Amino acid sequence: MTIHAGGQVYPVLRIFSHGFEVDKERTPRLRGLVDIYDGPQQLARALVVVTAESAEARRYEFKRTTPAVSDPPPVDFVR
Question: Where are the alpha helices (DSSP H) in the chain?
Fold first, then answer.
């Protein structure tokens, strides 16, 4: 799993239903919208905030998440 933010990609240490944890040394302090990927597949876009820090990790919680849409958008005409 990875987090994409500001044109950069950061590995996820742990992911939870309400947030995720990243390596504090390899990841800058994230803020705002991030994209969550599992390999090449986008899972969601989330608005995140920092909730805890330890010596090695920084934990974020989702304020809002929107699942990524894998289906094509609906059309407004008959095919």
Answer: none
Residue 62 to residue 17: CA distance in whole angstroms? 9
Which of 25, 22, 30 lies closest to 58, judged by CA? 22
- CA torsion through residues 13, 51, 56, 31, sign: positive
CA nearest to 43, candidates 60, 62, 67, 73 = 67
CB 3 within 8 A of CB 10: yes
Integer Cα distance of 7 and 2 in angstroms = 12
**Alpha-carbon distance 60 to 24, whole Å?**
11
Q: Give, for all 79 residues of the chain, the pLDDT tens digit.
A: 999 999 999 999 999 999 999 999 999 999 899 999 999 999 999 999 999 999 999 999 999 999 887 677 778 888 7
